[in-house]
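Supplementary Text 2. Reproducibility record for the structural model of the 394-residue chain.

All settings were left at their defaults, and a single model was retained for analysis rather than an ensemble. We include the record here because the model underlies the residue-level annotations in Supplementary Table 4.
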Amino acid sequence: MMKVVELGKEAEIITKGTTPTSIGKDFVEVGIPFLRAQNVINGNVIINNDILYISPETHNKELKRSRILPGDLLLTIAGTIGRTAIVPIGAKELNCNQAVAIIRINSIDIDKTYLKRFIETNHAQKQFTKGMVTATISNLSLAQVKKLQIPLPPLATQKKIAAILDQADKLRQLNKQLIAKYDALTQSLFLDMFGDPVTNPMGWEKVKLGELGLWKSGGTPSRKNIHYYSGDIPWLSSGELNHLYVGESKEHITEEAIKETSTHLIEEGSLLLGMYDTAALKSSITTNVVTCNQAIAFSKLDKERVNVLYVYYIIQIGKEHYRRLQRGVRQKNLNLSMVKGIDIFNPPIALQNLFAERIQAIEAQKAQAQQALLKSEDLFNSLLQRAFKGELVG
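Retained model, structure tokens:
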């Protein structure tokens, strides 16, 4: 039977950071990089244009408890919990806020990469959520982290498991990088053919979205009538507009729900635009007949005047510019009139159609990469779960 240890008893330090402004200290232009949860992604510590800095004095005095050293294991414990990274050997000192836990292991009996991989498993996540009312949590306490029970085979076995999982993860990351390259190629193609969607360097004529099709918004059938939600017609929320094309949804409604509420059937090939808060101008194109809630505007655009793929991409590439139209203090929203009033430039339809043909070719290649990613994700997760059941290495 595999030995099991408690993380808190094996770690030299398990701690977390503090936001300096909460103790009267400011961020600075140059200094010690200050990590937040968004800087711990895909197993890496990301120091980019989004990074914040604190002074060396604050780092060594007020925030000395959360000084991060090379070899430390980082774990996100607020927001999206469970992301991990090991600080590379040779890295300069770092610090962090309360959303990141610092785990310092100096035991010769524990391989840090093995520990990192274990924390990623469903078994570890279930330990974190044990005793919670729901299976999802937005914060972990240090006490929960310290109580984590870790299966611990001999060190040589740990290293073998870590090496196998690293190779599987490498394949997964390569597929993600390929998809990112296809996304970058798409944007580059748009800019080459049409120029920047904000500055319009090629001087294309402008047209309002309201002139290109009849725009409507969806509706929400009464939740009191549970029968409304027992149908087979996809009913979309703006949170589901995460891809170029959409045809399925988490919830489905009946034809009766559509007839008796303000919900509408939406034709295949329609453009959907989110209108509320952080989902504003998230968009997708429908691949079949769907419905949506009131947070989404939709239209079947006039294909004689515009290509829907072109309109999708000009909005996505110029999204930050168009989002300035949002209003509201606590919640920044668009309404249907504001969506109709969005100006986009309108090159000749033949050029738009040529762009769409090239995009479809790129998307076909990207779809293959996404299928490869799904397979590599399945492989990695299968190996991950088997590893800590003692099934991966004899």
